[in-house]
Amino acid sequence: GVPIAAIVTKSAVSENELFAYCRSILGAHAPHGLMFVSKLPRNAMGKVLKNELSRLFLQERAKRQSDNQQ
């Protein structure tokens, strides 16, 4: 799959700034997509629910595609 990153920030940062930072640190391994979230979905044990993040990313991508078509 294509690497993506879910980002929780405490301050305002642009998507372009994050992509540039990731590319400078990770090079070819930098994520191809970023998604800003207010908090990461977690289970009762505190583990991140990766399936839920994936579902949220697909919803966000579908929303962006429909917005671009209008």
List low-confidence stretches: none
What is the general shape? Answer: globular
Over the alpha carbons, how many angstroms does the gyration radius reach? Answer: 13 Å
Order of secondary-structure elements: EHEH
> Treating each run of at least 4 consecutive H or I residues as one helix, how many helices?
2
Q: What percent of residues adopt helix (DSSP H or I)?
A: 40-55%
- Which oligomeric form is depicted? single chain
Largest sheet: number of strands, sense, barrel closure: 2 strands, parallel
Secondary-structure class: alpha+beta
Main-sheet strand order equals 1-2
Alpha-carbon distance between the termini? 28 Å
- Average pLDDT, rounded to a whole number, is 89
Q: Please report which band the strand proportion falls in: under 5%, 5-15%, 15-25%, 25-35%, 35-45% or over 45%.
A: 5-15%
- Give the tally of β-strands: 2
